[in-house]
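Predict the structure of Sigma-54 factor interaction domain-containing protein.
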Amino acid sequence: MSMTIDARALEKRDLLYLAADGGQGVYQALHANGWNTLIARSIEEARTLADTRRLSLGLVEFDSLPSSKALLGLAGNCPPDMHWIALLKSDSLCRHEVREEVSQVCYDYHTLPIDLDRLQITLGHALGMASLRRRQRHSTKNDNPSLGLVGNSLALKALRQRITRLAVSDAPVMIAGESGTGKELTARALHHLSRRSEGPFVAVNCGALPASLIQSELFGYERGAFSGANQRVIGKIESANRGTLFLDEIGDLPQQLQVNLLRVLQEHSIQRVGGHVDIPLDLRILAATHIDLERAVAEGRFREDLYYRLNVLHLEMPPLRERVEDIELLAEYFFEAHAKEKRGGIRGLSPKAVKAMRLHAWPGNVRELINRMRGAMAVSEHALITPEDLGLGHLMQEAGGYSLEQIRAQAEIGALKRSLSQSSGTISLAAKRLGISRATLYRLMDKHGLQVAADGSNPQAAPPRLDNVAQYVPTPRKTSPCSAASAPPAPRQRVQEAAACSLRPPQRGGHYRR
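Done. Here is the predicted structure for Sigma-54 factor interaction domain-containing protein.
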């Protein structure tokens, strides 16, 4: 039975319909039900209409395409946020290459003969999601530019609100969070929203400066203060006067410098190395750390009085795994930001790539996402970036029959193992590959029961040596992956199930969605 919708109750919804024969029957039915249908009889015509009309939704007769890879080429040359629905015969899904292409490019599919009611539901849902995605991208681009924090998750919205509240104060702020979560970006946002926004923002990585130079770098020095000091040099702290000083990795600051910094906070002045004159300062100090400073205080590695001086206000950065809904927006943002680095012909991300990114645990957080996107843009040979281009192809193979948490844990373990192997067991190199700190790497290894041995001959018998290891040994863990029978199939798994056509033909109007 056909359902008729009052077109007056609906706005005209634009739809691109690619049909070699003109598809007049489908065109008339859709037009009568509120769809402003634009017909294209060739791929070239479809590309032109999609670009000039800024369309969000396309319906394509898959079996009329000139080649099996034509759909990939079409989607790759249309706006990246356009959703495609494939019309195809049931037996076409028996072919592996068809299932692969449809699942990689299309938002959904509909099997012939056409069920108009079901097709309209599919089209309406796809258009709604495409419009929502476009609005999300638009709102992201129009976020407060002084924040520069991309995403619409609840965690990020709460962070933005807290940044806005804390920016009006001059009190020190401690920004805590894992490596790669954007602590410096947050510090810059605090500065730009503050009354000091016209003044300098000076960032110092305390962990990157040699111990022998850090005092002169921070405090500056007078001429003749030491051998080679031929002229007066202004230090980082003094350079931030009337602005904001950001001390990243504050937990790596040597003990003696902790005393000097405490004096700056107490007296609001400094003395250059080799000098005897107090130089007054008017600045705000922001500090960041990826380590547990309270634990460092308890162990005597960080001064308690300095900790409380710096931790007047506190900001906690959410890791990327807690902002899953932001991953696609971030990926698209970095795709556009690094557009000059991409290989010609790449138009965006495939649905499978987006799914793989949502499954990945992201131990290196946003920094890892940037690195994977830039690498994929440089090497991909496809119009749309695939999971393999991102180095996440294994996630799609392992996804069946497992819960989301189990998949993320497997991805995290796999990333740790690969980095350790590629770094010949050197912890510092493995951490650098992942874009995380040594402390975070140790924590993740402990979380998953990963041990390392001094040599590969009898790794389980040897006590762990995490500083220079030759082999890692997973500690047995009791896990029981969900069986396929106990969990519903993944949305796109239905496309794979269609391979068993001889046993169970696909039903009309089948669905899968990302």
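The chain has three domains: 7-141, 154-316, 322-434.
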